[in-house]
Amino acid sequence: MDISSVITAITKIVPAVAPQAVKTAQRNELVIKILQELKFNPTQPPNDFDGVYAYALVEYGVLKPKSLLKLFREKEIKAAFWKKFNTDNPSVLPEEVESFLDWNVLGDEIRDLNINLQQEFEEFLRIFIDVAKLTRTPAEVLRDKELRKNEHHKIINVSTIPAEFAPLIQEKIRSFCGRGFVFDAFNDFLKHPKGYFTVIGDAGMGKSAIAAKYVYDHKAICYFNVLQNGRNRPELFLKSIHQQLINRYQLENTENDDLSALLVKASDKIPMGEQLVIVVDALDEVEQELGAENILYLPKTLPDKVYFLLTRRRYDHSKKRLYTEGVEQKELDLTASQYIGLSRDDIQKYIRFCLRNDPEYKNGLKKWIQDRNHDEEHFIDQVANKSENNFMYLRYVLPGIARGSYDDLNLKQLPDGLQEYYETHWVRMGMDDKTQQQMVIILFILVEIGTPIPCEMIADIAKEDEFEVQKVLDDWVEYLKHQNISGENCYSIYHSSFLDFLKAKRVLDSKRRLFQVVNEQIAEYLAREMA
């Protein structure tokens, strides 16, 4: 069926009213009218792809902006959807869609409406799948019921993302772009019977975002090591993974099982054609005594169909703590020469996304560019060069540009790379000036404590007014992680790269007499709290 006739029928029958003004029952009536107009049976969709696609577009398209309907009409988009639907990860927005919108006028129309294309794509996919399920005959429905009834390895619990990691994952994937070459490499690795696949890169290159995206898309079992939260010890990792495996596969009699034994039990319950992937982020942040054991006591042997997707920073091979026997190992180093061009492409996609789609920053970014008479593509190219393929650099610099923090600079004057960015901000905040001692002390306390702490505690240790401490925390808000813990607003250093930068500053050297006094005050505070 010609998709143009679907759009014509929708615009002909659907009234020009706000979506929230139409009740569910009214919407369903509109859908049925449109299906009938197109000669579709409202209770039995056609069973070919073109028919299901058109039928799903009716279900999806009622009350949607016309520009979105036009997008799904395009043959390139339809072909990209079908291609993606046949992959293991169909919910990810196809790259062909992003490329199409870069040159087609529909891209400007959709961006002007602040439409989240990823969400729209996922919604259409869900409707497409629901419609496709309706194409089964009664005999096929009965057959599928029997297959499920006789499935020996039926999994009772549907996988969910652990609550302790849900906020981190949502934050990491909010503006996720690219990295298709990493996921392609890992999917290729899954052709091995079992193994460890490690993504390696410098701080800020997006390793945690890659891990979060995979967990989100596949609802994988996971553990995210976070140094700043003290969630980086083997016993915490083992406890979390044990519980996730038990819940996922309904394992019993596991009280005395170590991770190796538990994985064997779980592997017996993996459904045919599926695999068990466990994602573990930031091995470099793990706090574990030196010894012969693997990092986090990861097993040296694995049962078939079991894989670990790991991430870590680069370090000397003499410090490697992952030894295996008869298990495939592969490392993908994001800094390797063959990936530099691909990473740069992803960096440019991220900048383009913020410039065109981010509701919070796009207007400020466009104004900064227009005020300097730059071309958007020139801006994207130059900022990508400045970033040195580091996403954390962009996380700080792009919002800073949008908020006006760099109104006194031109494109060439922006800092080069993440470390120079940190140094530039340090200087612009006047942190080497003696008058900034209060601010230096507060940062030192955050570094020294290392875990999330409330403003009240910082003020008590620093012997400063709580209001003044809060002002300092607000000044450094983009570098701090703010979270509510047991009803208290707590703060910690946001990213390990900034923590490393602070630790390297001479002005924050713990050997300074000033900080020896502060350390005494920390000890006194902890003693009072424990008394």
Can you tell me about this structure?
The chain is 53% helix and 8% strand. The chain is of the alpha/beta class and 531 residues long. β7 (480-485) and β8 form a beta hairpin. α20 packs across α24 (513-530). The longest helix has 20 residues, at 337-356.
Secondary-structure topology with pairs:
Elements lengths: L2 H11 L10 H14 L11 H13 L4 H8 L1 H11 L9 H9 L1 H8 L4 H18 L3 H12 L16 H8 L6 H10 L5 E6 L6 H12 L2 E4 L9 H16 L9 H9 L8 E6 L24 E7 L15 E6 L3 H20 L5 H10 L4 H12 L3 H13 L13 H12 L8 H13 L3 E2 H8 L3 H10 L4 E6 L2 E6 L2 H9 L8 H18 L1
Parallel strand pairs: 1-4, 1-5, 2-3, 3-4
Antiparallel strand pairs: 6-8, 7-8
Helix pairs in contact: 1-2, 1-3, 1-4, 3-8, 6-7, 10-12, 13-14, 15-17, 16-18, 20-21, 20-24, 21-22, 21-24
List keywords for this structure.
single chain, 531 residues, alpha/beta, five-stranded parallel β-sheet, three-stranded antiparallel β-sheet, 8 strands, 53% helix, globular
